[in-house]
Design a protein that fits this description.
Elements lengths: L5 H24 L4 H22 L1 H12 L1 H36 L2 H31 L1
Length: 139
């Protein structure tokens, strides 16, 4: 058997491995519940599907063509951009809420967590600025 899409194969093997690890941990701890079973079923389904697609020449080629399609690339760029903006907004609002909660309640823990979120927000803003400058120079 030849592997035609190594990334999909690796992802599939990792998913099957995670399913086996989760199932083993559930049996060892005797904590089998519906959530764990659903997780194992989905991991196995997606993992086996990814492995089978990576072993089929026709399906691997179809995946590569879909990956190179301009419309799919545009949708991916738009979704990543929107998710980045939403993450920035949510981290800013959570930081603001934690800072206010810390000031009102007097607990320093809220302020500490808010400061960590402020740092993460600042890093994301700097990353956005540097990425903009990089692509502005490239084009």
């Amino acid at each position: 058997m030849k592997i035609y899409n190594k990334k999909a194969f690796a992802a599939g093997v990792c998913m099957v491995g995670l399913a086996a690890l989760n199932l083993t941990a559930d049996f060892a701890g005797r904590t089998i519940d519906m959530n764990g079973i659903i997780l194992v079923v989905f991991l196995l389904a997606f993992g086996i599907s990814a492995v089978m697609r990576s072993l089929s020449k026709k399906l691997a080629r179809q995946d590569q063509l879909e990956k190179l399609d301009e419309r799919n690339q545009l949708i991916e760029m738009k979704s990543k951009s929107k998710s980045f903006r939403l993450t920035q907004l949510i981290s800013f609002l959570a930081m603001l809420a934690l800072m206010v909660m810390g000031k009102v309640s007097g607990h320093r823990d809220f302020i500490t967590i808010g400061t960590g979120l402020a740092l993460a927000f600042a890093i994301s803003m700097f990353a956005e600025i540097f990425a903009y400058m990089y692509y502005e120079e490239k084009n």
